[in-house]
Amino acid sequence: MPKAYVVLTEAIKDPDGMAEYAKVAGASFAGVAGRPLALGPVSEVLEGEWHGNQTVILEFDSVEEAKAWYTSEAYAKAIPLRQAAADCNAAIVPGF
């Protein structure tokens, strides 16, 4: 089964709010088959315009695992914190 990646782009408006989000979101990974791969500013935009000042890439064992994490009760507590602290885009991208 191919891996899956959750990609979030975030235009952070409230750094303290994002720090609180990070605590709650980090706890949502307990017992989940997922892990962060990258977090930070994009070092170079190669084409077009990139949204936000922070990008996060998370890896999961499958699209189903990524969806299960995103819709979990644990992560549901984090979503409103992120949305209050940043303008965000999020997508699940299937691997090969």
> pLDDT under 50 segments (min length 5)?
none
Number of strands: 4
Sheet-strand content, in percent, reads 25-35%
The SSE string, one letter per element, is EHEEHHHE
N-to-C CA distance? 9 Å
Which structural category do the helix and sheet elements fall into? Answer: alpha+beta
Number of helical regions: 4
The portion of residues assigned to helices is 25-40%
Average pLDDT, rounded to a whole number, is: 95
Q: Per the principal axes of the C-alpha atoms, what is the gross shape?
A: globular
Profile the largest sheet: 4 strands, antiparallel
Identify the quaternary structure here.
single chain
Strand order of the largest sheet: 2-3-1-4
Backbone CA Rg: 13 Å
Structure description:
There is one protein chain. The chain is an alpha+beta fold and 96 residues long. The protein has four helices and four strands, in the order βαββαααβ. The protein has helices at residues 15-27, 63-70, 73-76, 79-85; strands at residues 4-12, 34-40, 54-60, 86-94. The longest helix has 13 residues, at 15-27. A four-stranded antiparallel sheet has the order 2-3-1-4.
